[in-house]
Amino acid sequence: MKIHIVGPVGCGKTRLAVALAQNFDIPHYELNAIMLKDDTGKLEQDSATAKAQLTKQLLSSSWIFESSVDELFDNYFSEADIIVVLDTPSYKNRWQIVSGFFKEKLNNVKNKIAYDNKFDKTFNDMKKQLQAEKEYRKVKRGNLIDQLMPFESKVIVYTSANIAFEDLVEHVLKDD
Questions:
Q1: CB 101 within 8 A of CB 121
Q2: Taking Cα atoms as reference points, which of 34, 28, 35, 24 lies closest to residue 13?
Q3: Residue 85, SS3?
Q4: H or E stretch at 4
Q5: Domains, the chain
Q6: Closest by alpha carbon to 154, among 168, 165, 142?
Q7: What is d(CA 57, CA 114) in angstroms, rounded to the nearest whole number?
Q8: Biggest distance spanned by C-alpha atoms of the chain
Q9: Which ranges carry the ATPase AAA-type core domain (predicted)?
Q10: N or C terminus: fewer CB in 10 A for the chain?
Q11: pLDDT for res 17
Q12: 117: left (phi over 0), alpha (psi -120 to 50) or beta
């Protein structure tokens, strides 16, 4: 099974991907970590290296990719069996960004994301995430809809990561 999960910052992509990966014993990859950009928008690793990594992962029989909405990942939608779009309400995303920042700062949770735990959020990082969420609502959401039109038969839209997990486990992935 090949699943690609997309959505804005703070919608629960990582949580859903990790839960599905554990439930179905499928490898999980965070595409944003592979093609990580620095503060200027420049890729931290060259695109040839990143594409080689992605191509290797695409060739495997099962995977879960998760990414924010980004033109860098257009080509990978065609490889997915299912494309999960988390279209959560903006207020939930913004709450998750802010509360997650403070939880991490207070050491109430450990943020286990694909940055080898080198990622220590600053207030500026939180502001960037809030700005990215706003940009998603204004521009990228519409672009995503256009990008997914050729693949509409394999697109499933959810308004919650929890609902997505329950539905995917109970109905969609049950027979695979």
A1: yes
A2: 28
A3: strand
A4: strand 2-6
A5: 2-172 (3.40.50.300)
A6: 168
A7: 15
A8: 45
A9: 5-87
A10: C
A11: 94
A12: left
Please report the pLDDT score of residue 155 as a whole number: 94
Q: Say how far apart CA 176 and CA 173 lie, in whole Å.
A: 5
CA–chain centroid gap for 32, Å, is 8
For 40, other C-beta atoms within 10 Å of its C-beta total 5
Tokens of 99: 């509360």
Mean pLDDT for all residues in the chain: 79
Q: Which two tokens stand for residue 63?
A: 């995977």
The pair phi, psi for residue 9, each rounded to 5°, is -60, 135
Position 20 pLDDT exceeds 90: yes
pLDDT digits (tens, 9 = 90+) for 118-154: 456 678 888 988 888 888 888 788 888 888 899 999 9
Q: How confident is the model at residue 175 (pLDDT cuts 50, 70, 90)?
A: low
- 20 close to 63: Cβ distance less than 8 angstroms: no
Q: Helices H, strands E: what count in the chain?
A: 7, 5
- Give 42-89 pLDDT, tens digit per residue: 555 556 776 777 777 777 889 998 887 665 555 678 889 999 999 989
Please enumerate in sequence order all residues whose Cβ is within 8 A of that of 29, keeping only pairs 6 or more positions apart, or say none.
Answer: 57, 63, 64, 65, 66, 114
Q: How many residues does the chain have?
A: 176
